[in-house]
Amino acid sequence: MFQTSEIQKLDASYFNIILTGDYDVTIQSKNTGHYWHLHNTEYPAEESCIIFHKHKASHPYHRHGKSRNLRQAIRSIKGHDVFQMNGRKYI
Q1: What is the pLDDT of residues 37-69, one digit of tens each?
Q2: Which of these, 82, 13, 16, 69, lies nearest to 42 by C-alpha position?
Q3: 7: how many CB neighbours lie within 10 A of its CB?
Q4: Which residues contact 22 (CB under 8 A, 6 or more apart)?
């Protein structure tokens, strides 16, 4: 379950906060416009937060990864934004 204190730390200047709940958080990055759905499985394991991602509202979500907690998921999302905004590097 996400703690209220974790949810309150979501940066509203960075994200459009669409939905928050005990087990689910849906946000949109203001930088890329991408949507993110974070689901807390509450499974007692190292990675209990599943990160889902989509590029547009009309697209379906796909699984992006896992994290230990909401803070780590947000860090992963911001890293993805940097990657997207800097363009993919082809070798």
Answers
A1: 999 998 766 668 999 999 999 999 999 999 999
A2: 69
A3: 14
A4: 1, 2, 40
